[in-house]
């Protein structure tokens, strides 16, 4: 496989999948083969990548690391509900146009002085329109900036599923052609093809048109070895044996019926917390006292506290204060084969069991944990006025 020619950033490209793994590793991102293959193909084929997966599995970090590795500038478009093209693509700088018009009042007056009536004055002004709809008054937002950038960039379009479908339509031209059309000015074609990474938490389906233009990769929680390697690489200060055990516990928690499953970053936070507290042994008590680092809902915390003793040690006697309330079955209850992760069955009856879940949650526990936010809160505050703006039907795509 041949390496790409040297780019203006000095980065010589990726010689192959193993090279991607190496280069990302140097910058602290531990990529597995599947992910590295996608990155390699992205660079080789100049295709955008769409990363989908639960919160905290390294989607955003992948784009940041790609920028570091390649020495490219990172341009980021953070998507939110109600977002429109004026914050994504470009907008005309009306304030500046107005200022110029006022400063040139005399000039404008002289221009229309000869006009016999209003209609001809308007015609005279219209002839000057191009002076005001020129690049001078164009405020480029991240998408246009990526296309016009004189040096190669990584363009991160983060959490695209939070934006409305209309914004996806705006992206199509860019993703397929690496160009942006501004009706008043024409078409801007990328000087250097940007590496484009889109991320999604899967809170809604993305359009087939968008998916078709991208290499698609579903990121999930890593296997135990890679998660341990990530923890090691973050130098959390937690002894290796404890970190290994912690990873097993977290993997067990992910099997529970939690609203928000612990992410990689939360495992790292937990490891740091335990290290700072000088934890020498990973007991259910030590984990219970710090479980709020990874578990963010009361109901999840209850379930976690209930599960921790058997996750830490499947044969342990469960102290009463750590056991759930009126769980209804004895201690030492077998929750399944150890190597499948204890607690793999999730729909146990309890005081906060199926009925309550049905009442509160969207159907499908996987959705809720997977999406991270569920329908609990708006994903992002919508800046006032944004939602009300509509997409003008002036875009041909
Ligand atoms: N493969 C990895 N190698 C090294 N660190 C990782 C890896 N995956 C995740 N991390 C760590 O997890 C943290 C969270 O990752 P990131 O912010 O990219 O998650 P995300 O998938 O974008 O989550 P969200 O959907 O919530 O935005 C990163 O800051 C990084 O420290
Ligand atoms: Mg992210």
From TrEMBL:
Residues 316-397 are annotated as: Disordered. It comes from the Bacteria. Residues 331-369 have a biased composition (Basic and acidic residues). Pfam families: AAA_5 (PF07728). Residues 45-223 form the AAA+ ATPase domain. This is AAA+ ATPase domain-containing protein. The lineage of its organism: Bacteria, Bacillati, Actinomycetota, Actinomycetes, Propionibacteriales.
């Amino acid at each position: 496989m041949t390496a790409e020619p040297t780019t203006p950033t000095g980065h010589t490209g990726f010689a192959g999948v193993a090279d991607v793994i190496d280069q990302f590793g140097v910058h602290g991102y531990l990529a597995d083969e599947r992910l590295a293959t996608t990155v390699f193909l992205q660079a080789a084929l100049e295709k955008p990548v769409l990363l989908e997966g639960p919160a905290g599995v390294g989607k955003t970090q992948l784009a940041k690391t790609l920028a570091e590795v390649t020495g490219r500038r990172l341009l980021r478009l953070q998507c939110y509900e109600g977002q429109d093209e004026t914050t994504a693509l470009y907008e005309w700088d009306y304030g500046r146009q107005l200022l110029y018009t006022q400063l040139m009042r005399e000039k404008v007056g002289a221009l229309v002085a000869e006009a016999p009536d209003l209609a001809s004055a308007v015609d005279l002004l219209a002839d000057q329109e191009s002076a005001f709809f020129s690049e001078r008054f164009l405020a480029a937002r991240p998408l246009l900036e990526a296309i016009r950038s004189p040096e190669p960039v990584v363009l991160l379009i983060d959490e695209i599923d939070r934006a409305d479908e209309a914004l996806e339509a705006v992206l199509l031209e860019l993703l397929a052609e690496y160009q942006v059309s501004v009706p008043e000015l024409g078409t801007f074609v990328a000087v250097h093809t940007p590496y484009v990474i889109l991320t999604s938490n899967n809170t809604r389906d993305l359009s087939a048109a968008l998916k078709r233009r991208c290499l698609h990769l579903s990121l999930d929680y890593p296997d135990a070895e890679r998660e341990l390697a990530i923890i090691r690489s973050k130098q959390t200060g937690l002894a290796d044996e404890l970190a290994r055990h912690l990873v097993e516990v977290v993997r067990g928690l992910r099997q529970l019926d939690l609203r928000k499953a612990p992410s990689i970053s939360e495992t790292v936070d937990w490891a740091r917390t335990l290290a700072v507290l000088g934890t020498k042994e990973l007991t259910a008590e030590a984990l219970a006292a710090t479980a709020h680092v990874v578990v963010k809902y009361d109901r999840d915390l209850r379930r976690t506290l209930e599960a921790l003793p058997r996750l830490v040690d499947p044969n342990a006697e469960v102290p009463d204060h750590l056991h759930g309330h009126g769980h209804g079955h004895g201690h030492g209850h077998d929750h399944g084969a150890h190597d499948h992760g204890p607690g793999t069955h999730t729909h146990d009856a309890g005081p906060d069991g199926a009925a309550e879940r049905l009442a509160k949650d969207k159907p499908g526990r996987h959705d809720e944990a997977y999406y991270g936010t569920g329908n609990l809160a708006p994903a992002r505050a919508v800046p006032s006025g944004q939602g009300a703006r509509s997409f003008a039907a002036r875009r041909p795509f």
